[in-house]
Design goal:
Elements lengths: L2 H6 L1 H56 L10 H8 L2 H8 L1 H16 L9 H12 L2 H7 L3 H22 L2 H6 L3 H20 L1
């Protein structure tokens, strides 16, 4: 059928335009559904990333104040490094982090008595963020490798916490046990969610 003949036959033209509009409507619905699904999962991942980072910082502060255990809580430093939200990581990776690291090194060198034990791990985290090579800070951190490292650290800390508490039931019933257990569970949930979705 030629173009002029098709132009004269309004029924065929309307059917073709109607068919095209139906296909466009279907494509638009699929786009909206897929965008909502991907954004919803991405939003959930970013929320869990923030929660896991806050939980790791909470556990680090708690260990330095009143929750002395034999666990390797220094493993929270690489966990925070790999799970810190990009906004905060970028801030500490820039000039702000360089200044904080500079002040920490100066205080450690010239005033070692004022550089308390509780200040060593946060200073190590800032130094790690500032001096980490681009491969680790850019590639591994935003990749499944960083998530696997976070998962291994979270599982290890959960297992050690349950063992130190005297069992799974005691981890939820002892004083300070519930908040510590929930914080450590948040450390495990984030990488599992991010790896799965």
């Amino acid at each position: 059928m030629t173009f002029t003949a098709m132009r004269r036959d309004h029924g065929t033209l309307q059917a073709m335009v109607g068919s095209d509009l139906n296909e466009l409507a279907t494509a638009a619905k699929n786009l909206v559904n897929h965008t909502f699904m991907l954004t919803g999962l991405g939003f959930g991942t970013s929320i869990l990333e923030w929660i896991a980072s806050i939980a790791a910082i909470y556990l680090l502060v708690l260990d330095r104040t009143n929750w002395k255990t034999n666990m390797l809580t220094s493993l929270l430093i690489p966990y925070i490094f790999f799970s810190l939200p990009s906004v905060i990581f970028g801030l500490f990776r820039g000039d702000v982090g360089k200044w904080i690291a500079f002040v920490a090194v100066v205080v450690q060198l010239f005033f070692p008595k004022h550089f308390r034990e509780w200040f060593e791990l946060p200073a190590a985290l800032i130094l790690l963020i500032v001096v980490a090579p681009g491969l680790i800070a850019g590639t591994f951190r935003d990749n499944w490798v960083g998530l696997v490292i976070c998962l291994l650290i979270g599982c290890y800390l959960l297992q050690e916490h349950i063992r130190a508490s005297g069992g799974f039931r005691d981890a939820f019933t002892k004083a300070h046990g519930i908040s510590n257990t929930l914080g450590i569970i948040a450390l495990v949930v984030f990488p599992v969610w991010a790896l799965a979705f």
